[in-house]
């Protein structure tokens, strides 16, 4: 295979991704790790929303959410998902496609307890994606939790980490006169096969 380079780096897509993420963290005004996450029902009806991508390693791209939310339910019935990062300051996009699995409970525990007490309370109080009669109902739940758990707030069993194992990663860099650069990588056995695409 022709050796592919992106920005002069050898094309190991996770290495390139980390490089781009570091650049985005330095230049974006906030939440460089915000990413659109697309899921779909068993029948293939899609939905998309933003999440925070908290870690990337050899397992893939990790995020945390409520397993009983719309995305959680869709992932239960259809583990195929896609992510799209867009860094406006850098005029870059990264697209990722693959299969999502749940991370072990110990991972969710570690991350849950690393968050602020306010974030923990909100995660417990919110029946994410289900109807809420009023803002007051949610705030009352938060007050009840505060009284019930003066110490550590336990992680609800449905608040979980997930990891998207990439089968395909594509890097897009804005180019002059709309001559953008697109480099796509598809998993091939232990490695990746890269190809340059028309913009
Ligand atoms: C920048 C940004 C980051 C977000 N990060 C998360 C996240 O990490 N986890 C999460 O459950 N929701 C996150 N949300 C809220 C989701 O976009 C969404 O409203 C919620 O998860 C319910 O989605 P669902 O009904 O499709 O399951 C974030 C929203 C924004 C705008």
Give a verbal description of the structure.
28% of the residues lie in helices and 39% in strands. It has 199 residues and is α+β, with helices and mostly antiparallel strands. It has a single domain (5-197), classed as Roll (Pnp Oxidase, Chain A), CATH 2.30.110.10. The strands form two sheets. Strands 3, 4, 5, 6, 7, 8, 9, 10 and 11 form a nine-stranded antiparallel sheet that branches. A two-stranded antiparallel ribbon has the order 1-2. α4 (117-125) packs across α5. The radius of gyration is 19 Å and the shape is elongated. Bound molecules: flavin mononucleotide. Residues 31, 34, 47, 49-52, 63-66, 69-71, 128-129 line the site of flavin mononucleotide.
Task: Compile the SSE list and pairings.
Layout: E1 5-6, E2 9-10, H1 13-27, E3 34-40, E4 46-52, E5 55-57, E6 60-66, H2 70-77, E7 80-87, E8 92-102, H3 105-114, H4 117-125, H5 135-148, E9 159-173, E10 181-188, E11 191-197
Antiparallel strand pairs: 1-2, 3-4, 3-7, 5-6, 6-9, 7-8, 8-9, 9-10, 10-11
The structure holds flavin mononucleotide.
Flavin mononucleotide (FMN) binds next to strand 4, strand 6 and helix 2.
